Amino acid sequence: MTVHTRLTASSRVSKQLWAPDAAVSKDGKKYFLYFPARDKDGIFRIGVAESDKPEGPFKPDADYMQGTYSIDPAVFSDTDGEAYLYIGGLWGGQLQCWQEPGKFNDKMSGPQEPSGKGVKALNPRVAKLSEDMHTIAETPRELVLLDESGEPIMADDHDKRFFEAAWMHKYNGKYYFSYSTGDTHYLVYAIGDTPYGPFKYAGRILEPVKGWTTHHSIVEFEKRWFLFHHDVSISGKNHLRCVKTKELFYDEHGKIKLVAQ
After folding, report:
1. pTM reported for the whole predicted model
2. Is residue 151 part of a domain?
3. What's phi and psi for 35, nearest 5 deg?
């Protein structure tokens, strides 16, 4: 069965609704769809829409979530009831335009371009959500990603640096932040002690798939862990993607075992 989630129009959106994420309220009675889209000035913002059912229809708030920007929202609900919004995407996702606090500058290309040698990589952002999950409760802060030695990941380390597709999950009391490296097409992860990090690089989850990018989620179901992602193995075209799922396994040290294609 195919279910098409319906999102009614928002007066603040001009175009390009990209990859969204969904979450449920603490009491399990409301569902939220978080989506990136360009505002009337062409700047990507994060919107939120609410529904009584997981399949919608979802009614968006009249305005975007103030203080938000870039793309690829991911919402993580912690075991203490707090929820967090993770955002960020380079190049088309405009994260490089927000290097000055609270100021959008479309002339900034970011240290990833062209080489980034000797420069720290740009990192995603995180902010705690308000109780009603319609706004952020704080100014988005940088989520620090470190290499195996505990040093900041550099912009020219294309095998490890953040590009897009943030995701957070929790396993055995540790926080696992996973993401796409972009032009090297790896799906990798880093481990931290809090939802804010810092997070130390821990390895790859998935090798490059057929298609330009890897956007994923990791969820637990009946005490088993599953990776959901996409590729273009059916269509052979980068813009026509199919969904894949594979079971995830951890070793005795909490490291995620590399998923076979």
Report:
1. 0.94
2. yes
3. -140, 145
Catalogue the E-assigned strands of the chain: 21-24, 31-38, 44-51, 59-60, 74-77, 83-87, 125-128, 141-142, 145-146, 164-171, 174-180, 187-192, 199-206, 217-221, 224-231, 242-248
User: Which residue range(s) make up the domain with 147?
Assistant: 21-220
106 and 182 Cβ atoms separated by less than 8 Å: no
- Tell me, yes or no, whether 65 lies in a domain: yes
Domain of residue 178, CATH code: 2.115.10.20
Q: What proportion of the chain, given as a percentage, has pLDDT over 70?
A: 92
Walk across the sheet containing 74-77 and list its strands. Answer: 74-77, 83-87, 125-128, 141-142
DSSP-based three-state secondary structure for 7 = strand
The closest of 256, 87, 114 to 186, measured between CA atoms, is 256
Residue 111 domain flag: yes
Q: How big is the chain, counted in residues?
A: 261
How high is the pLDDT of residue 3?
A: 42
pLDDT tens track for 167-223: 999 999 999 999 999 889 999 999 999 999 999 999 999 999 888 778 999 999 999
Residue ranges in the chain assigned as alpha helix (H): none
Q: Which of 141, 145, 148, 185 is nearest to 165 (CA)?
A: 185
Answer yes or no: is 94 within a domain. yes
Residue 116 banded pLDDT, cuts 50, 70, 90: low
Structural domain total, the chain? 1
